[in-house]
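Example (one chain per record):
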Amino acid sequence: MSPDSLATAAVAVTSNIALYTAWIGMFLMVALSGAGSALGTVIGGQSSIAAMKKRDDIFANCMLLSAMPGTQGLYGFGAFFLLKAKIVPGMPMESAVAILGAGLIVGLVCLLSAIQQGRVVASGIESIGNGNDVFSKTLVLAVFPELYAIISFAAAFLISTGI
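Predicted structure:
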């Protein structure tokens, strides 16, 4: 092989590695945030079923609270669309690593915040089932883990503008 063909082959391999690196970040972003939302909504849903055994009139409140952890999956999906256009053949490795980093940020933060938000709403739902009027207070407290998911989405937006 000539030196020119070796250089061309090296560029092609590097380009493929950059694409694979970026797509791994994208997959992690959607998978982890979606998994977190699935787990968080299940935690809230299980508490809802238990609470409604005591009081069947609280379904609307239980449903709204149980759905809250579902938003983290939407943040991961939204960040996917922000970054998808940045993945192009021949992209620099620095951009690919930035996308991988954004994927890890959004994916992990949304995974953890959705699960913890599910625990917060589950506690509130349990209390509502016991006859306490804590729906609005639970709603306010459940927003706190959500804020970190929003911050991770904002970070992905800022990363996308820098690529």
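Caption: The chain is about 85% helix and 0% strand.
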